[in-house]
Every structure is written in C-alpha cells, then in structure tokens.
Design brief:
The chain is an alpha/beta fold. Helix content is 20%, strand content 32%. Among the domains are: 98 residues, Sandwich (Jelly Rolls), CATH 2.60.120.260; 68 residues; 186 residues, Rossmann fold. It has 11 helices and 32 strands. It has a 6-stranded mixed sheet, with helices on both faces. The protein is globular and about 90 Å long.
C-alpha cells in the first residue's frame, strides 16, 4: 500500500551484472489506483531519481524508466516508492520489472540468454560438468546445441556456437536443474467416449476407494442398475492427456450422454474435493475427485451438478451425488450406512420427520417456510416441529429427536460452514449423534453447510460421516444465497419425494432446482450421498 508520508522500499536482487554493456538497464513500475483523483508516485533506485508515475482514479499507472549503468550493483538494490500527490492519494503496487545486462554466467546452474547465430559464447558458473544447452528460439522445434566443457576457477564452463540466422534464444543448465518425475505410471487405455451399450449409473472414484465402494456397486447391480466403476485418473488420461481437471469428467459425461445407448442417469463421485485442488495451501492432497468452482455473487465455490449441466442453465441432466471420503475406512463406513438404510424398508422411524426453523428476523420468515413445508408432508408422517424462537431447549431437543429416529430432517434458517444459526446445531453435535442405523435424509436450507473446505469438514460432511449414526444423505449449499428461492426449492423437493413417483434422492434434487430461477441456488446445492438412494 502506498500512502502519503510512508515511502515503501522493495529490495531487488541483481545477479552477475555486466556494467560494461552498451545496453542500459530499464525499470517498469506498475501501480493500481486505490482512491479517486490524481496519483503521483516518485520512483528512486539506489537513491537515483528515476522519475514519477502519474495517473488518475482507480486505473492502472505505468512508469517506464531508463537507469544509468552506474546505478545498479550486483546484489541487493533498493527501489523506493514515495507518494507525492497528497493525503488523499492512495495506491498499491501491482508489479515491478527490472531488466539489466547479464554476464554469460549461470545463476544456480541455469541461464536463459540470447546471442546472434554463429557467434561464440562461453557460459560459466556451473557446479558440475554435466551441462546441456538447447536452442528454444522456436519452442516447437527445440534443438540441442553441442559444446565443449572446461573447468575454471569458479567451476565449469561450456563454449558453444549456435546455428541458424538471427538472434537465437538458448537455455543452458546443468544436471542439477533437470527435473525428475515423482513417479511414472503406465496409462491404462480406455474408450469411454465411444458408442456402446452404456450404463445407467457410473461411479467415478479415486483409485484408493475403488475396492471399498465395491459392495455398494454390487448392491445397486442387485437392484437392476447397470453400473460402471471408473478410476478418475482414467478420465484424465482419456479426456485431458493425463492432466487433472474437472473438465475431463464433464467431457466424459457429455460424451456418454451422446454416444451411449443406455445413458447415465446417476453419477456417484467417490472421493472428497476441496476449493484448493492443486494444494497451494499445503494442507494435503485431499482433492480425490475434483469439483468445479463457479463464481457466485459473493464467492467462488463448488458446484457438483455442473458436471451434467450441459446447457449451462444450472439444471443437471443427471442425478449427481458425492461420497466426501478421504480414507478407505471412511468409504467402507459410508457404503455400509447406505446399504443398511436401503435394507431398513418402511421401519417406524422412517415415517417420522423433524422440521426445524431458526428465529425470524426483519427480512427472513423461517417459521413461515417451515410451516409451508409441513403442510406439504403426508398426514401419515409423525411430524415434529422445533421453532428456535419458542423452544428454549431447541439444541438439546434437535439432538434428542434425531437420536430417537427420523426419516427426514429439514432445517430453514441462518447458518455457516459448521453450524445452524447460533450453534443451534453444529459439527460437534453431529459427530456425537447416537441414532445408529436410523439415519435420516437431511435437507439443509441455509448457507455454506456444503462448503468444500481444506481445513475442516462442513456440517454436511460431519453428518454423513458421523460414526454413531448421523445422516445417510445431506442436501446442502456450498454458497451464500437468499431465503426466498431456498424455501421455494425446498417445497419443490418435498413434493417430489412424497409424490408417489418413486424418485431417488438424486433425481428429486435435480428436478427441484427447476422450481427456482436463482442461478446461485441452482448451482450450489450439493447432494452428499448416493443419488440412487430412495427415501424409505
């Protein structure tokens, strides 16, 4: 940040400087206006007044300056930026680029340089004798440049004469700068893109979970589904030359939707995902099956339904669910939970429903949303309603009611990543549930309960992974959205689930999104669980 009376100094390290060169150093300073009105920033390098960058408003300001050869030194050089436009002048530094003549000496056993074709050059400063030089003037026709290696007082040198006309761009590097792959894995050729009989259900799994998800595959096949289990790496190989990307999954599903006779109706993603798929934050490689990150009005966040949203309307053409697992043990636990739920049949607890409403506020009528929902439920259900504004023991009552057995739990209210309202219900409570095999379907009409974090689990994940029971499936949002469309979509889902059409959770969730036009709501509700599960 640059402000009046507060000069900013940035060290710039110069290596192997050649002050005798006929070429002068140059400096480019790019700034960004942080306030309206004129901006003026003085630029000095090692005390030399290079000039001033002037511009206005919230625009970009660029200063380009020639620097005398005598100004630079090998080592640390200090760039000082001083605001001269007054107290209202505020800006920030975008980037600084210093260009200077460099000797033919490698920096850390590496040098990129230019030289006229046919000229002799000797590059020194290498730490070992295994030196390679390549001509990269044409990146599509890289060629090796032969050379002679000798020893010197400062290490090793190589002398070369590049061929070709005009100025050549060369790379010189020793073996210490040659990267080595972490591992090499043979590609297993596949042809999922081709016309074929097809499958109505595809399980896209990380290789670590393919064995553990097997019992669920067998169970679905026993119910009449034709199931394909696909290693996600196979999709990277076939649809994106081995490079990890969510586009490989979408391109596969699009191809299957077009070319297969039996087209996928259900897509199960077996593996967790995060908003940091390349592990820039160094929290671990926990992005086992990627999601797609969409830009909503307030944040960038996950959208699993994007994979089959071929028309970009926010409406998926396939029912998609995710098992947010990071270990084979977690996978086995969740698979057993899903199968046990299917085997429960019409047990008495499946005919109970718990509806929870947060306190109303000046703009949000959560109680009204829950009351409207209750009117849509079959009268045969044993329905319990908890209103936070009238139940002083709401938190304990929610836990007690879930532990006693519920087929459906529906919440409308404020929330965040790990909570309903002000700790009305949270991760700790979810992980401590003792409802055993009486696992409900949880519908969470609030914000961020389905956020795919890198540091900690969201409430949706905590519920589905709870060791003592929890939920068999959770439908929750990864974003911040408004109550109105949330309530409308919730009512549409309840109508579909209890319509007698025998829709699965995934099918009903996908269809319910058509009831709203809010794109953020459509794109960010994620089904944690198996989309082929049917409400018992």
């Amino acid at each position: 940040m640059l402000a009046s009376g507060d000069p900013v100094t940035q060290p710039l390290t110069v290596t192997n400087y050649n002050p005798a060169s006929a070429e002068m150093p140059s400096l480019v300073v790019t700034l960004q206006g942080g306030s309206t009105g004129p901006h003026s920033v003085a630029v000095e390098l090692n005390g030399y007044p290079a000039g001033t960058v002037t511009w206005s408003d919230l625009n970009e300001g660029v200063g380009k300056f020639a620097i005398p050869n005598s100004t630079l030194i090998t080592g640390q050089n200090n760039l000082t930026l001083t605001v001269t436009g007054g107290e209202e002048d505020v800006s920030v530094v975008d980037n600084v680029q210093l260009t200077y003549p460099h000797t033919y000496t490698a920096d850390s056993d590496y040098l990129k340089f230019t030289i006229p074709g046919g000229d002799l050059a000797t590059i020194g400063g290498f730490g070992n004798s295994f030196i390679s030089v390549v001509d990269v003037t044409n990146p599509l026709a890289v060629t090796a440049v032969p050379g002679t290696v000798t020893t010197s007082a400062s290490g090793y040198t190589i002398s070369i004469v590049p061929q070709g006309a005009g100025t050549r761009t060369l790379l010189a590097l020793s073996s210490d700068q040659v990267g080595m792959p972490v591992s090499v894995v043979a590609n297993k050729p596949s042809s999922w893109y081709k016309a074929q009989a097809g499958y109505d259900m595809v399980v896209i799994a990380n290789s670590a979970f393919i064995s553990s998800v097997g019992p669920l595959v067998t169970w679905r096949q026993g119910q009449g589904h034709k199931v394909a289990v696909i290693d996600v790496q196979q999709l990277y190989d076939e649809f994106n030359w081995g490079e990890k990307t969510p586009y490989a999954l979408k391109n596969f599903l699009s191809a299957a939707n077009s070319a297969w006779t039996t087209k996928p109706q259900f897509v199960l993603l077996a593996g967790d995902a995060t908003f940091d798929p390349k592990n820039y934050l160094e929290q671990g490689n926990d992005d086992f099956v990627p999601t797609y990150l969409v830009d909503t009005q307030l944040l960038e966040t996950a959208s699993d339904d994007w994979f089959s949203d071929f028309n970009l309307t926010g409406l998926p053409q396939m029912a998609i669910g995710r098992l947010p697992i990071r270990t084979a043990v977690d996978c086995t636990t969740l698979v057993n939970k899903i199968i046990a739920y299917d085997q429960s049949g019409s047990s008495s607890w499946t005919q109970s429903a718990l509806l929870v409403a947060d306190n109303n506020d000046s703009s949000d009528n959560f109680v009204g949303a829950i009351q409207a929902l209750q009117a849509l439920l079959p009268t045969s259900l044993n329905t319990t309603t908890i209103l936070a504004d009238t139940d002083s023991n709401a938190e304990a009552d929610i836990i007690s009611d879930i532990n006693s057995g519920q087929g459906l739990v529906d919440y409308a209210g404020h929330g965040s990543e790990q909570i309903w309202s002000n700790s009305l219900f949270d991760n700790s409570a979810a992980l401590g549930l003792t409802n055993g095999s009486m696992t409900p379907v949880v519908i969470s009409m609030t914000c961020l309960n389905g956020y795919l974090d890198v540091w900690e689990d969201s409430l949706a994940k905590a519920l589905i992974k709870a060791p003592g029971g929890g939920a068999v499936a959770v439908w929750a949002s990864s974003a911040l959205t408004n109550v109105g469309p949330q309530a409308t979509m919730d009512q549409a889902l309840i109508k579909l689930l209890y319509s007698g059409q025998s829709l699965t959770l995934g099918q009903a969730a996908a269809a319910a999104k058509a009831a709203v036009t809010d794109m953020d709501v459509r794109r960010t509700w994620i089904l944690f669980g198996d989309p082929a599960t049917k409400l018992q």
